[in-house]
Amino acid sequence: MNCLLCHTPDTDLFCDAFKCSHCGLVFKNPNVFATTEKELARYLTHQNNSEDLGYINFLKQLINPLTQFLAPSFSLLDYGCGPGPTLSILMEKLGGKVHNFDPLFHPDKELLNVKYDVVTSTEVVEHFKNPAESWEELINLVKPNALLAIMTLFLNEDVDYKSWWYKNDMTHIVFYNQKTFNFLAEKFNLEILFNDSKSVLIFRKK
């Protein structure tokens, strides 16, 4: 099967998924991808909101390292914000003029015709059914010399995929490692500014 990200045929079976030897992406068989209706039902079970201290602290894993690269004022798009936008509220307090986009909950496609100083995407990229197209859309939203900050659990070499809880969510279908991020950086002319080697990575668009 061709890789869903780099489109090369250099993939091998990896437990019940596929792994690309060229870009490192691990992806489930597209035949088992959930329908939009099932995805929506799953997302509506999430209890994430701006009143949840645990969720706020979770988001701060991305916000705290991001603050060192922010200008005093900036435009920001939270791409894949979900039903209860929270990150945007926190970023407004840091001087941002923020917007929320989500294909299911905040589907204002006009926001995708603008470029931003900062684009954030937390717990989103693992849901990409067409990662090649979705990553290109995501990166095209970023101004030159601007920031793209993502959060997703990394599938590093020390992770046992068979027992990895993160893959058990039916809406989690593509997984990334350092090789994948290096591929994205080279393909889209990005610089990796921050990488905690676990779940947070910040790119600058060259």
Helix and strand topology:
Elements: E1 11-14, E2 17-20, E3 26-28, H1 36-43, H2 53-66, E4 74-79, H3 87-92, E5 96-101, E6 116-122, H4 131-140, E7 142-151, E8 174-175, H5 178-188, E9 190-195, E10 200-205
Parallel strand pairs: 4-5, 4-6, 6-7
Antiparallel strand pairs: 1-2, 2-3, 3-8, 7-10, 9-10
Characteristics:
6-stranded mixed sheet, Rossmann fold, 4-stranded antiparallel sheet
Query: What percentage of amino acids are in beta strands?
Result: 25-35%
Q: What is the first-to-last residue Cα distance?
A: 32 Å
| Total DSSP E strands | 10
Let me know the largest β-sheet: 6 strands, mixed
Give me the side-by-side strand order of the main sheet. 5-4-6-7-10-9
Q: List the domain count as a whole number.
A: 1
